Amino acid sequence: MDGMIIGQSPALLAALARAEKAAASSARVLVTGETGTGKEMLARRIHAAGTRAQKPFVALNCASLSAELMDSELFGHVKGAFTTALRDHGGLVAQADGGTLFLDEIAEMPSSLQAKLLRFIETGEYRRVGDAGLRRADLRIIAATHRDLRGSDFRDDLYFRLAVVTIAMPPLRLRTGDIPLLAGHFLKCIAAQEKRPAMRADDAALAALARHDWPGNIRELHNLLYNAVVMNDGDTLSAAMLQLQPLAIDMMRDAAKPQALWRVEQAAIDAAIDYCGGNIPHAARLLEVSPSTLYRRPKNRARA
Questions:
Q1: Is residue 209 pLDDT above 90, yes or no?
Q2: Architecture of domain 10-170
Q3: Taking the complete model, does pTM exceed 0.85, yes or no?
Q4: Dist. CA 18–CA 299, nearest whole Å
Q5: Which CATH architecture is the domain 248-296 placed in?
Q6: Domain 173-241 has CATH 3.40.50.2020
Q7: How many Å apart are CA 6 and CA 47, to the nearest integer?
Q8: What's the count of helices (H) and strands (E) in the chain, helices before strands?
Q9: What is the pLDDT of residues 106-156, one digit of tens each?
């Protein structure tokens, strides 16, 4: 999926207008929205339109690392700080100095790291793991989350430091009028990437896409169209070529006989993992849980 943000819906245009104003400032930005709505693309757009555009844009997914690894990845470490620290590591803060640091899924950041990030925001100073000395960096922070940080275990003081400007990315189900534009763009790009003839979606296919709920949003649309291009021949995308299947949990809801909760949960997990090609972090984002929840959950557990 490329880095373009495509669409003309009022909700999207409002988000882009806020991003344009934010880019002209040095304010920290919190981007909210469901998984797959394009939060990182918006962050990159803000960076590219701002005064730090010629400096690095560095991204970290806070849901992908443990607290210890995240500390080292974010702030760096010195040789010998821990068993596998065979050399000095500068960290992403140092890499982003002068530019923008994008912290995706900030809600998953452990509380110990939240405190360290807060101090860095307030002072511009940080300490690498195992290092006694302080270092400084000047960068802009853009954070993103699909969860509501208010009323959660996320630190209020850090929330208010990050949410100087908030921008909500709308879900695809609220901007279905943009689907023809998105589908046309994705089909063209995918065909070029796969060196296949360009495909166009017929009216029935576009109608089917407009009826779908899109729990995975734009990322789901892109992956669905990618599958259609790769698995079919010809220059026309028909509704029959689309694998628009609801998650198992949605099918469970429609079943006449109620299912045990653990079975519904397991079915949803299995369906999400299959949908994401076995990628646990992606499946976790689709289900709006942390990856550790899926790693800890036993597969096909037996119950009396």
A1: yes
A2: 3-Layer(aba) Sandwich (3.40)
A3: no
A4: 44
A5: Orthogonal Bundle (1.10)
A6: no
A7: 18
A8: 13, 9
A9: 999 999 999 999 999 999 999 998 888 899 999 999 999 999 998 888 999
